[in-house]
Amino acid sequence: MSKWAKWDCAKALKKAEQTILRCKKLEVRVLFHFEDEYPELLRQITDPPYMLFCRGNVKLLSGKNISIVGTRKISPVGKKAALEFAKDAANDGCNVVSGLASGVDAYAHQGALNAYFDALEKDESLIIGKTIAVLPSAIDEILPAVNKKLAGQILSSGGLLISEYEPAESMAKWHFVGRNRIIAALSMATLVVEAPTGSGALITADFAVEYNRDVLFHEACFSESAEYISSLVKSKLDRDFAIGMVSKYKIENTPEKYIRDGAPVIKDYKNFCEVLSGLPGSQNKPEQGELFD
Known about the structure:
It is built from eleven helices and nine strands. It has helices spanning 9-26, 40-43, 76-91, 104-122, 148-156, 175-185, 200-210, 224-242, 248-252, 255-260, 269-278; strands spanning 29-32, 51-56, 65-70, 95-98, 131-134, 160-163, 189-194, 214-218, 265-266. 43% of the residues are buried.
């Protein structure tokens, strides 16, 4: 028998016991695929995580969720768009889902948090959406480290951190793509705020299309500053493609491709709701407060 086929029961049991102890210490809820609280939208995809490691309010997973994604190389226009859209969505009772990366992700989470903090000062009885951060790393590791404070604010505001990787799990590059599929799956609609050619955010858009979700683009994606950033990124990708370092798919995956295929361009959250309510076959109702009922 090959050494790779051997099963070390004692070693596996010890690892499981260590994971349980770490989860208890961090107050991590392990949500299994067969449990009622496991989000149905995520369960429907072809490769849902068997387990989700959760810190915070797991009820958000089955709430009114909007996924917001975009580039780390964000322009000032994109920053403003992500903040304002996420804040308006949260004020309307929607939860903002993103990946806790620098750039658009961080500003999307912050926009939802701003809605929460404003409500604390004005009227605590207001129903404000929260924010969900899907981690590419283990549930006990925050990447990038600069967003540790943001992660803490998400938890203290009643939000949620989730990962399909147990505490102390080593990080791998392919985890980012795995994270993107979860972001796309948790919502009926994904908004791309800003994404240059080949951006990882467009991989999330691909997953959303595959899962029969709505994909929309913010007009900030086509602003002058965003186009400038995109031109720089594309020039580098073209050079890398010429020497075989990137795939043809990457240099051809652009926001314009999705627009040609029919993805709407919106200017703000109100416009987002209007567009979704008019999309053929949309399951969404025109009332903003009922967006994802």
